[in-house]
Every structure is written in C-alpha cells, then in structure tokens.
Amino acid sequence: MRDDSALGVMLARAAGEELLRVREVSGLEGRALGDAGDAAAQALLAGLLAEHRPGDAVLSEEAKDSAARLAADRVWIIDPLDGTREYSEGRADWAVHVALWEAGELVFGAVAIPGEDLVLDSSSVAAVPAGAPDAPVRLAVSRSRPPAVTEPVRAALNAELVPMGSAGVKIAAVVRGQVEAYVHAGGQYQWDSAAPVALARAAGLHTSRIDGSPLVYNGADPYLPDLVVCRPDLAGPILAAVAGERDGGTA
C-alpha cells in the first residue's frame, strides 16, 4: 500500500536539505544563489516523483505546466523554494511546499522550514487550540511589501503586525500558534498555498479566499491571488473587515 504522507514528508525534507547544501557549497549569492536553489530543488523533487509516483501529474512553480493534469486523478502541487529572497539572503524564513490533490481535494500537505530543521505535515499536525477571549491578535505580514488589505484587518482586530518571509512560513506560523492570522491579497499561485493550506485545514484553521469563497486547487489557471488563514473565531471579523474595505472602494 502506498504511503503518500511518508513520501510527501520525505520529499519536503530532501528538497530542504538540498537547498541548504547548495547555499553552503555553491559560493553563489543574491539572485544567482536563488536561481541555483530553485533549479536544484526542482530537479530533486521531479526525479523523486518520477521514481515513486510515475503515474501522477505535477504542478510546480519551476516546471512548465501541462493541461494533462486537469484530467488526472492525482496531482502533486509543489513549490521547490518558497521565499527565494529570504533563501538568497541567508535567512531562515523560507520553505519547501509539497501537496497532493486527489479527486477534487487537497488530501495532504507538507511544509519544510529547513532553516529550523522542521517539517510540518497534515497527517500529524496537532489541532490549534482556541484563543482566549480578548487575547491580543498577531497578524503575519510580508517583511517587505504588506498588501493594502493588511491595514483594515489590523484595525478591526487591533492586531500586532509580525513581519516574516515566505507564504509557507506565514501559514505555518498560524499553525504553530506564533500568530493568529495571515491575510493576503497581493497575488499568489496555487503552489504558494496548496501545501500550507492543507496543513492549516488539518490543524482546524479557517482557510478561504478573502471574499469567503473556497480555495480551489488544480484549476486550469494556476493564479490564486488571495487567501485568509486564521483561527475559526477570527474568520468573521477578518472577512467583514475585508468586505468593508472593498465596498468602500479603497482596496
């Protein structure tokens, strides 16, 4: 019997180890290092998937897309290096994403944070505990370019902004209880969120588009520009704040 969860964890960990190796031995820096890391992690993941799941389709940021995945029953959605800037700067807040979509749903997700020697996966993640009433709310935001939607959400929740790197790291931070919410509306793709969203769902968190509609994966257009990941009790206030901003014509 195939164990997709064990394979997914292995893939995420192996790609993370390869990225650390490239950063240590390549002698590259800046954009050249990021490009080399992207290429090395993509090659490793593609090779392992071809070896272990040759009949499955793959959607990856670093590979040419194929319409064949739209007729496939199983699709691996991967981001070999989420947070290329952070990786190339020698930081730890970057990730590797490995998700499995099957028959219309995400069924597995693993997020490796190699800089912390950590792999979180949907088959073993613990449920996020409910927040205490009136406890402070922390909102994960981009360290370089927070989207405009951040401010109305911050104001509605009286939240503390916590800057950090990649999307996977931000969603993992909600899962880990380091922040309570992550809201994005600045442009992303399916590979940016598939694995961390599968992880968040397994942890009992709310996940949706910023209009409250479901996040849908393996769509023909890989563009999936916005999302909300948060504790369930915060979903109503966050979606209301976003809706109010959009209705006001300023977002």
From TrEMBL:
Cofactor: Mg(2+)
InterPro entries reported for this sequence: CysQ/Inositol_MonoPase, Inositol_monoP_metal-BS, Inositol_monophosphatase-like
Catalytic reaction equation(s): adenosine 3',5'-bisphosphate + H2O = AMP + phosphate
Binding residue positions for Mg(2+): 61, 79, 81-82, 192
Top-level taxon in the UniProt lineage: Bacteria
Signal peptide (from-to): none
Keywords assigned by UniProt, alphabetized: Magnesium, Metal-binding
One function term, GO molecular function aspect: 3'(2'),5'-bisphosphate nucleotidase activity
GO annotation terms (biological process): 3'-phosphoadenosine 5'-phosphosulfate metabolic process; sulfate assimilation
PANTHER family noted in UniProt: 3'(2'),5'-BISPHOSPHATE NUCLEOTIDASE 1 (PTHR43028)
Protein name according to UniProt: 3'(2'),5-bisphosphonucleoside 3'(2')-phosphohydrolase
Organism: Demequina lignilytica
